[in-house]
Amino acid sequence: EIVASSASVFFNINKSRIASKKDLVNVKELAECAKSSGKTIVVTGYADSKTGSASYNQKLSERRAEAVAAELVKMGVSRDKIEVVGKGGVKDLTPISYNRRVVVTLK
């Protein structure tokens, strides 16, 4: 069975609450994989650089990552197996709203 190597969770502008619980389906697969393999999960938060100051976006990206980390803990992943990273405001993706995301990967 092949599990996606990463999953993205999207957020509404200026929010750190997960926009759609549907996004957690792939996160759950990664959580199960991490639990069975003992791997660490890296949760990286982003904000879009078009809105908010750099310092605000840094905090927002961290809050988004923490929100997803909390979901992983609910799924049974040990908190010490989760690394949380905030990357601040970015403009990597188009449309800009896609930058309001958290990416979950196995390490």
What descriptive keywords fit this protein?
single chain; alpha+beta; 107 residues; 26% strand; four-stranded mixed β-sheet
Helix-strand layout with pairing:
Layout: E1 6-10, H1 24-37, E2 41-48, H2 54-74, E3 82-90, E4 101-106
Parallel strand pairs: 2-3
Antiparallel strand pairs: 1-4, 2-4
Q: If you had to describe this structure to a student in words, what would you say it looks like?
A:
- The chain is built from two helices and four strands.
- The protein is elongated.
- The longest helix has 21 residues, at 54-74.
- Helix 2 (54-74) links the parallel strand 2 (41-48) and strand 3.
- A four-stranded mixed sheet has the order 1-4-2-3.
- The chain has helices spanning 24-37, 54-74; strands at residues 6-10, 41-48, 82-90, 101-106.
- It is an alpha+beta fold and 107 residues long.
- Helix residue percentage: 25-40%
- Major sheet: size, sense and barrel closure? 4 strands, mixed
DSSP, total strands: 4
User: How many DSSP helices?
Assistant: 2
**Strand pairing plus helix content: what structural class?**
alpha+beta
Radius of gyration: 13 Å
Overall pLDDT level: 95
N-to-C series of helices and strands: EHEHEE
Poorly predicted regions are none
Shape: elongated
Strand order of the largest sheet: 1-4-2-3
Task: Please sum up the structure shown.
This protein is of the alpha+beta class.
